Amino acid sequence: MDFDLAPPTGVGPLRIGMTRHAANTALESLRDLSMISESDRQGQHVFRPSGLMISIHCMRDMLEAIELGRPSSQTDRVLFQGVDVFALPAREVVRRVGEFTSIEEDPDDDASFIAPDLLLSFWRPFAADDEPEEEQGYFFNSVLLARPGYYDTPAQAAERLQQSL
After folding, report:
1. N- or C-end of the chain: fewer Cβ atoms within 10 A?
2. What is each CA distance from 35 to 2, 51, 67, in whole angstroms?
3. What are the Cα distances from residue 127, in Å, to 82, 109, 116, 135, 161?
4. Alpha-carbon distance 14 to 34, whole Å?
5. Contacts of 98 (CB under 8 A, 6+ apart)
């Protein structure tokens, strides 16, 4: 199954801003009932047979972020504008996403990248761009799609609020 990242809207039936109840229902719809994982946690995350983890993050009874973790097989793909974010090397994902929007190295983690205008965040535990056999560092391990302002500092949140008035 293909999961198309559509920031800032969501992915599949999961929509940023939906109620926690609606998000739980949408998350449940992504489970494969023929192979339910013992690791699934209702209202938190599900694991598909491919190993793809889909996690929801709610605050104030509202879905604020969706995180997807790298599958172990290609039966599920996570795409942004046709770019398979888990099958391609991390540096290639950054290059190709950069054709659509600005993407920058995370200032707190040089192995990870953020597309701030879309609020897509790409994570891996360390960088191993020249070592394809080192999958944990060669590919991204997770991608987060969040509401605008998700990473704002208090000062940035205040500025965003002022701009919206």
Report:
1. C
2. 18, 11, 21
3. 23, 10, 20, 10, 36
4. 21
5. none
**Hunting for tokens 């192995």 — which residue is that?**
111
By the 8 A CB rule, do 127 and 137 touch?
yes
Residues in the chain: 165
CA 66, CA 30: separation in Å to the nearest integer?
13
62 bridge partner residues: 19, 59
pLDDT digits (tens, 9 = 90+) for 107-142: 888 899 999 888 899 999 998 888 988 888 999 999
**Does the CA dihedral 99-103-105-106 come out positive or negative?**
negative
Identify whether the C-beta of residue 89 lies closer than 8 Å to the C-beta of residue 138.
yes
Tokens of 74: 């290609």
Q: Which of 130, 131, 103 is nearest to 7 (CA)?
A: 103
H helices of the chain, in order, are: 20-29, 90-97, 135-138, 154-164
Phi-psi region of 68 (alpha: psi -120 to 50; beta: other; left: phi over 0): beta
